[in-house]
């Protein structure tokens, strides 16, 4: 037997599991969406639900890769249950065989460990809350006169606080192991970083019907998936280079013309980064213009709060006629006609947006609800999150024909339209609640306390307000009704996806049921992104093949606000948060990276100092007029936009953030959109955002590249994204002086793109409190400067 044959057999043993692969089978996987990795549970056996991957079908048999042990007494009709041991590899896979076709799912071994966090204070009534408790208060333990908390965490750094006498401890920032919380205070940090860093994968060369990739160190295990089917990667003798040849597969029945190749690997220290390669007709995609709007990684979202965008039809401008509602909390006239007008004008095309996200447009109540004490006001449902119907369009926004025309016009311009949908709750005037009050959770808990805004301890039952009943979505009858209502929107209209409100307050059964119905009843990819504030584990628990494609990355946004809106020159927490997100969600995740949202004060107003980090931002929006007092805040918002447009994930622009809309928290952060009479600073920012969006959408390195932190110290952050021969490096400078980057540096032989920089004969200068992006391509490497 020759060396090559021996090598191929060895790789097959590592990669192919216990059932022999039929390499001549050209049939594609039956799973048309990407099989997200199964993360081994740290606390119990791990279940794989067949319905998440195969829908109504069941596998004929199941085979596994290294280290996966099947558990006895399992229900093979519905679920595969397994466990892994400490000595097992960090990476493996499971194969669901259906009609002789292999369908492969990557499996990641849990790498968490339990750490005792000591409490050394004198308080007797002490608890703890942090990222590892989903910021819910947890009791400490006492053992041998020591007070501590046992935290089970994965590798990385995790923030927490002690609660003493019922109040959160106040840290000065001078204590050891603390970090800014981005809101004017500090949190403690538990450091569970890896002792040794795993190998790093990198793209090699593009071949005819294949490609190569490299690894910095020897690998222990390797899983390469071509549209959810394991394929071979051949290691070059004596080198850390692998070759992947793409086999012939029949994708003629697939909707998308793009297929994805994923490369996962592990070594003795853990899982490496992963690679993602888009392919068309067995050829690696080199040009971003080959990709379509339904290739989710190409998306740039733009959130429109319909009522605050543009009044296109004054006939339906009807504020609630109640003197108890102040103008800020009432309808301002924005409607679907206004959205359509801007689509036809080319506003979004010019900006580069290819996915428009509409706030909820279902019918909301006519009256006034809620109460804000100072100044005293009630609220209307202008935002759309108080549904009294789940299928009827609010007449104040428009009608069915307008929505259909928006979708049609958007599709003509190669743009997606996704809709904000509310499943967790209804308004008390909703006919469903009136007919079935028993379908709601209890407003009062067993101890008599009010079950409102109990975001963590009662997250699946809490009401958002006393007039907003939360539906009991653990009741199968309610799940059927509500998933049918959501399905209505993507079957009646050619919508391209959902933004789901209050995701963590809805049980997993709802998401699984909805996702299966959507796939069974639509003829196109449907992107689903959720909204969850909480721990990484909680957020990730809803992101899987059987549920959602993504959630918004609020943890990264908080770190970015702290890094870019302040002038402390510290990028350490942002870097840690970025890397932790890649660890938890994957190096090529689809998480939403936001510029702001409707529940936070505007970033630019924090950056200008007009809203303070340590004040009540909601109160500020009511009690004083927030203005723009420091124009350098425009540069800082530009830095945030540059970060979002160059990092993994799906960039999301909150309406108005393209020019720097100001404001404190809700409803001051929901001012009417401006299109005209912009200041020069606002115009320049909008132009910059336009450049950034177009750069993002036309750079393969920014869409599919690896992510490497090149430098993070002394107020300078440099991150490089690489995809085969294309490299994009973004620099952020928080020094008091400008930073110079030499053009004769071998990494930057030629400038493909230099945004927001001053170029001289010998170097490029990054101004203080600003950023720069450099890009080179393979064909540039022989260029002489």
SSE topology:
Blueprint: H1 3-15, E1 38-39, E2 46-49, H2 50-54, E3 61-64, E4 69-70, E5 79-83, E6 91-98, E7 101-108, E8 113-118, E9 126-130, E10 138-139, E11 141-143, E12 146-153, E13 156-164, E14 167-168, E15 178-180, E16 186-192, E17 201-207, E18 210-215, E19 221-226, E20 230-231, E21 234-235, E22 241-245, E23 259-267, E24 270-271, E25 275-280, E26 283-284, E27 301-304, H3 336-345, H4 347-351, E28 355-358, E29 369-372, E30 377-379, H5 400-412, E31 416-421, H6 431-435, H7 476-492, E32 497-500, H8 508-521, E33 527-530, H9 536-540, E34 550-551, H10 554-565, H11 572-585, E35 592-594, H12 603-607, H13 617-623, H14 633-646, E36 650-654, H15 680-697, H16 700-704, E37 706-713, E38 716-723, E39 726-733, E40 739-742, E41 758-759, E42 763-766, E43 770-776
Parallel strand pairs: 1-7, 27-28, 27-36, 28-31, 31-32, 32-33, 33-34, 35-36
Antiparallel strand pairs: 2-5, 3-6, 4-5, 6-7, 8-12, 9-10, 9-13, 11-12, 13-14, 13-16, 15-16, 17-18, 18-22, 19-20, 19-23, 21-22, 23-24, 23-25, 25-26, 29-30, 37-38, 38-39, 39-43, 40-42, 41-42
Q: Could you describe the 3D structure shown?
A:
There is one protein chain. With 785 residues, the chain is an alpha+beta fold. Among the domains are: 3-110 and 197-285, no CATH class; 113-153 and 156-192, Immunoglobulins (Immunoglobulin-like, Sandwich); 425-472, no CATH class; 705-780, Sandwich (Immunoglobulin-like). Helix content is 21%, strand content 26%. The chain has 16 helices and 43 strands. The strands form ten sheets. Strands 34-33-32-31-28-27-36-35 form an eight-stranded parallel sheet. Strand 19 and strand 20 form a beta hairpin. Helix 10 (554-565) packs antiparallel against helix 11 (572-585). The two termini are 52 Å apart.
């Amino acid at each position: 037997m020759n060396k090559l044959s021996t090598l191929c057999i060895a790789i097959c043993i590592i990669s192919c599991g216990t059932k022999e692969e039929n390499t001549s089978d050209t049939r594609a996987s039956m799973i048309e969406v990407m099989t997200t990795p199964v993360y081994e549970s740290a606390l119990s056996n791990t279940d794989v639900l067949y319905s998440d991957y195969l829908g109504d079908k069941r596998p004929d048999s199941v085979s596994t890769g290294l280290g996966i042990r099947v558990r006895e007494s399992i229900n093979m009709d519905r679920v595969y249950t397994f466990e892994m041991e400490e000595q097992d590899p960090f990476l493996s896979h499971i194969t669901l065989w259906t009609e002789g076709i292999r369908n492969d799912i990557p499996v990641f071994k849990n790498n968490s460990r339990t750490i005792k966090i000591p409490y050394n204070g004198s308080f007797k009534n002490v608890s703890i809350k942090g990222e590892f408790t989903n910021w819910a208060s947890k009791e400490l333990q006492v053992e041998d006169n020591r007070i501590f908390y046992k935290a089970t965490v994965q590798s990385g750094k995790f923030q927490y606080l002690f609660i003493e006498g019922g109040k959160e401890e106040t840290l000065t920032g001078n204590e050891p192991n603390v970090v800014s919380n981005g809101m004017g205070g500090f949190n403690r940090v538990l450091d569970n970083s890896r002792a040794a860093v795993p190998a790093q994968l990198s793209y090699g060369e593009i071949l005819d019907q294949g490609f190569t990739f490299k690894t910095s160190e020897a690998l222990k295990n390797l899983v390469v998936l071509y549209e959810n089917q394991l394929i071979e990667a051949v290691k070059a003798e004596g080198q850390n280079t692998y070759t992947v040849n793409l086999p012939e597969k029949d994708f003629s029945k697939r909707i998308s013309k793009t297929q994805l190749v994923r490369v996962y690997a592990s070594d003795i220290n853990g899982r490496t980064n992963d690679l993602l390669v888009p392919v068309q007709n067995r050829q690696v995609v080199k040009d971003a213009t080959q990709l379509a709007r339904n290739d989710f990684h190409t998306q740039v979202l733009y959130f429109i709060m319909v009522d605050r965008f543009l009044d296109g039809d004054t006939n339906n401008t009807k504020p609630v006629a109640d003197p108890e509602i102040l103008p800020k909390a009432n309808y301002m006239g924005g409607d679907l006609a206004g959205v359509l007008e801007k689509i036809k004008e080319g506003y979004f095309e010019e900006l580069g947006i290819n996915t428009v996200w509409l706030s909820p447009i279902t019918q909301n109540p006519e009256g006034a609800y809620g109460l804000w004490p100072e100044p005293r006001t009630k609220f209307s449902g202008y935002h759309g999150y108080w549904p009294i119907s789940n299928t009827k369009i609010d007449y104040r926004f428009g009608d069915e024909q307008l929505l259909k025309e928006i979708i049609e016009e958007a599709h003509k311009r190669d743009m997606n339209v996704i809709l904000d949908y509310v499943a967790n709750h209804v308004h008390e005037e909703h006919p469903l609640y009136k007919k079935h009050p028993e379908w709601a959770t209890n407003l009062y808990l067993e101890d008599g306390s009010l079950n409102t805004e109990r975001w963590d301890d009662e997250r699946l039952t809490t009401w958002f307000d006393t007039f907003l009943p939360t539906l009991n979505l653990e009741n199968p009858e309610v799940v059927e009704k509500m998933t049918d209502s959501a399905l209505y929107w993507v079957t009646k209209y050619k919508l391209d996806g959902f933004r789901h409100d209050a995701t963590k307050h809805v049980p997993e059964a709802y998401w699984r049921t909805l996702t299966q119905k959507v796939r069974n009843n639509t003829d196109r990819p449907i992107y689903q992104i959720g909204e969850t504030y909480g721990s990484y584990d909680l957020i990730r628990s809803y992101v899987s093949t059987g549920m959602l494609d993504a959630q918004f990355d609020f943890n990264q946004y908080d770190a970015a606000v702290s890094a870019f809106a302040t002038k402390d020159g510290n990028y350490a927490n942002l870097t840690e948060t970025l890397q932790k997100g890649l660890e938890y969600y994957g190096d090529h995740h689809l998480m939403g990276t936001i510029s702001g949202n409707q529940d936070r004060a505007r970033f630019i107003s924090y950056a200008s100092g007009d809203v303070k980090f340590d004040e009540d931002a909601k109160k500020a929006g009511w009690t004083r007029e927030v203005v723009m007092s420091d124009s350098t805040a425009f540069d800082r918002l530009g830095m945030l936009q540059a970060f979002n447009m160059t990092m993994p994930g799906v960039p999301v622009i909150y309406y108005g953030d393209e020019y720097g809309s100001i404001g404190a928290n809700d409803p001051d952060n929901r001012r009417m959109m401006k299109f005209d009479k912009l200041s020069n600073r606002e115009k320049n920012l909008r132009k910059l955002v336009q450049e950034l969006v177009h750069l993002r959408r036309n750079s393969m390195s920014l869409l599919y590249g690896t992510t490497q932190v090149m430098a993070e110290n002394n107020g300078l952050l440099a991150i490089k994204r690489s995809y085969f021969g294309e490299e994009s490096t973004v620099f952020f400078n928080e020094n008091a002086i400008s930073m110079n980057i030499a053009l004769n540096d071998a990494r930057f032989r030629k400038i493909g793109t230099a945004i927001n920089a001053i170029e001289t004969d010998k170097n490029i200068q990054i101004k203080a409190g600003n950023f720069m992006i450099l890009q080179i391509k393979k064909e540039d490497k022989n260029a002489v400067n």
